[in-house]
Design goal:
The structure holds 2 protein chains of 2 kinds.
Chain A: E1 9-11, H1 15-37, H2 40-65, H3 74-90, H4 95-117, H5 122-141, E2 152-153, H6 156-160, H7 165-172, H8 176-204, H9 206-216, H10 218-223, H11 228-254, E3 256-257, H12 259-262, H13 265-279, H14 285-300, H15 306-322, H16 326-335, E4 345-347
Antiparallel strand pairs in A: 1-4, 2-3
Helix pairs in contact in A: 2-8, 2-11, 2-13, 2-14, 3-4, 3-5, 3-11, 4-11, 7-8, 8-9, 8-11, 13-14, 13-15, 13-16, 14-16
Chain B: H1 3-31, H2 38-56, H3 60-82, H4 92-113, E1 129-132, E2 135-138, H5 139-161, H6 163-173, H7 175-180, H8 185-210, H9 218-232, H10 237-257, H11 262-276
Antiparallel strand pairs in B: 1-2
Chain lengths: 361, 287
């Protein structure tokens, strides 16, 4: 008998994740076709859901994986929006490249920001990021060329003559407003796919493993050679870029910006935190589930004003206390289903069975 | 422009910020908990005082005296039943629960009192002033400042001279060992938050009588309190007073140059301290 044991392999794929991948492709095909099927107001709702999902995935990467709990991510949304308005209104750059430029501006802002806030430990980091957001808001409110404290609007021609709008009018016979809504929606969809794809790849890579190690035990991770500070800085800068791009896209669609709205802690951070916490922090699936629940709640409770936020706060507290890994965490613990599996499992070899590790990573 | 006057106003404003910060500093010192709802609790206490003043016709100072035990009870209950469950190695639960609490308090107040700006009327005291040679100071700002000093002296006396204070320090150093010595950390934490809420009530009294407030004023009070704590250095209450004064000075000097720069120059002073002295000017704690 020369039958050797089959060699070890490390896998993250599961049966559920393979089925999900097929379903996800179907959903994406439908999502891309949506502007031809549904009305403009639904497209605008979907745009809102998609951009909130991008923000939520970013905050989740920061807080759930890198342990950087920020309540100042609105700074990148607002700065991205203002960078876009600056590029388009003042420099006459086309909005599409301006979105990417806005992302780069956000990174440029994130470097000095990180320099200050990384000096603060844990909980103080959170408030430090908030102070930075306030500083940037107050500074931009002084910038009279972009409307100062009252804000400004994008020139109408900017979105009407945007790159790609003409093409869509010729190809699909859309009106200008409809075409620019569809275009921003597609861009948001692409941004969601790129963000989730990036995070998923990152978490399955060597860097992702290092990140999980830093989160679970920073000292131990450092002892085996993970450069915790560098990992955190890299995640911080990356999320600044994506959040800035999302902010630019959001304000391209709104076409009107003011410092108070663009740097709103409730709109761009509180909602996002509740989405991640209720859905499930530290998973890719959590924010997706969270944003769907968030939108449903918002639609149902739209007429109740501040009761809605109060409810959201209470739900957030209850979830944090009794299901700290969120609703997706509850579901995943019961069923073992992971749609974006990042847990490494040993296959083959004499052990034969899969070894369950920690909760994730 | 009278520079001496500006500086005096800045120092006195610093007293208010030190009052905002003292409660935050106390809670952090004992249980390493950063309460993101701290500013909203100040505003809640201000509304409580407002209700007592308008409904019962009480004098604001008497109203604060009535509100203080109520706020103590709120703080005690909040810590014992809610926040104690979140304490642990992970810093995420306390931050997110207090953030949720902040949103809940803000929107609860919005429902109850609408978004209008309010003010607690303190009668003739509001405009009373004292002549101090070349400058005059308002009686209310002076009272605020001396209340801040009194609160800090009182807290320091309690922490370093009494058996409760010893229990505070022991629990702060090592809750498990303190537990072996017959101290119940859960109750000590609840007591500390209750005390912090008494300080919050004093802060709210001066916030309410000196300036307008509305249900969404909380977060900026939290930020000022936080800046005062960090400028002063963690773990030192006198440092917190110094931090409050520096913040107040930066704001009034900024406002004297351009009224739009008041808040901004306070933030910039904070960032400058963070740049040159990351651990604050008078650090005491190791973390």
């Amino acid at each position: 008998m020369t039958l050797a044991n089959p060699p070890f392999t490390v896998e993250t794929r599961t049966r559920a994740s393979q089925l999900f991948a097929i379903a996800a492709i179907l959903v994406l095909v439908i999502a891309f076709a949506a502007p031809f099927i549904v009305s403009r107001s639904i497209i605008q709702d979907l745009f809102f859901i998609l951009t909130m999902l991008v923000l939520a995935q970013n905050w989740n990467l920061l807080a759930g994986y890198a342990g950087l709990i920020s309540v100042g991510q609105q700074v990148f949304v607002g700065f991205g929006g203002y960078a876009l308005f600056g590029c388009v209104s003042l420099l006459g750059i086309d909005p599409l490249p301006a979105i990417l430029i806005a992302g780069l501006f956000s990174v440029a802002l994130a470097i000095p920001t990180a320099f200050f806030t990384f000096r603060l430990y844990g909980p103080y980091f959170a408030i430090g990021t908030w102070v930075v957001a306030e500083v940037v808001r107050l500074l931009l409110a002084q910038w009279k060329a972009l409307g100062g404290g009252t804000g400004t609007s994008l020139p109408r021609e900017a979105t009407r003559d945007m790159m790609g709008v003409d093409l869509m009018r010729d190809l699909f016979g859309m009106k200008a407003a409809q075409a620019s809504d569809a275009l921003t929606y597609w861009l948001a969809l692409i941004l969601v796919i790129a963000t989730i794809g990036f995070i998923y790849r990152l978490l399955r890579s060597k860097q992702g493993l290092g990140l999980a190690a830093v989160r679970d035990n920073e000292q131990a991770a450092r002892a085996v050679g993970v450069d915790a500070r560098r990992m955190k800085a890299m995640v911080y800068l990356t999320t600044a870029f994506i959040t800035g791009v999302a902010g630019a896209l959001i304000y391209l669609q709104k076409a009107r910006i003011s410092p108070d709205a663009a740097f709103s802690v409730v709109d761009w951070t509180a909602y996002v935190i509740f989405i991640v916490v209720i859905g499930g922090i530290g998973t890719i699936e959590g924010p997706i589930l969270g944003v769907i629940l968030f939108f449903l709640l918002q639609t149902i409770l739209a007429d109740y004003g501040s009761w809605y936020l109060l409810m959201l706060g209470l739900i957030g507290i209850v979830v944090m206390l009794f299901a700290p890994r969120g609703l997706w965490g509850l579901f995943s613990d019961r069923t073992g289903i992971q749609l974006f599996p990042v847990r490494r499992r040993l296959k083959g070899g004499p052990l034969g069975h899969s070894i369950k590790g920690g909760p994730h990573g | 422009m009278n520079w001496l006057d500006t500086i005096l106003q800045g120092v006195l404003l610093g007293g208010l910020y030190a009052l905002f910060a003292a409660g935050l500093s106390l809670v952090f010192g004992i249980m390493r908990l950063v309460n993101l709802a701290h500013g909203d609790l100040i505003v809640l206490a201000a509304f409580l005082i407002l209700v007592l003043v308008t409904a019962l016709g009480l004098n604001p100072f008497l109203a604060a005296l009535v509100a203080a035990p109520l706020m103590f009870a709120i703080g005690w209950g909040l810590q014992y039943f809610l926040l104690n469950r979140t304490l642990g190695k992970d810093i995420l639960p306390p931050l997110l629960v207090t953030f949720g609490l902040s949103i809940v308090i803000q929107n609860g107040l919005l429902e109850g009192f609408s978004a209008d700006s309010r003010r607690v009327v303190a009668g003739s005291l509001e405009s009373a002033s004292v002549n101090l040679g070349p400058v005059t100071a308002g009686v209310m700002p002076l009272m605020t400042f001396f209340s801040a000093v009194a609160v800090i002296v009182g807290l320091n006396q309690m922490i370093y001279r009494t058996s409760v204070g010893r229990a505070f320090r022991a629990t702060s150093d090592d809750p498990v060992t303190a537990g072996l010595m017959g101290i119940r950390p859960q109750r000590i934490f609840a007591l500390a938050t209750g005390l912090a809420m008494v300080v919050v009530t004093i802060a709210a009294l001066y916030l309410g009588t000196r300036a307008n407030f509305d249900p969404t004023s909380g977060p900026s009070r939290l930020i000022y309190a936080f800046e005062a704590v960090i400028i002063g250095g963690l773990g030192s209450l006198w440092g917190t007073l110094a931090g409050g004064i520096i913040l107040g000075l930066a704001q009034t000097v900024g406002a004297a140059i351009n009224p739009e720069w008041q808040i901004l120059s306070g933030h910039l002073a904070f960032l400058a301290v963070l740049l040159f002295k990351p651990r604050g000017l008078f650090p005491r704690a190791v973390d």
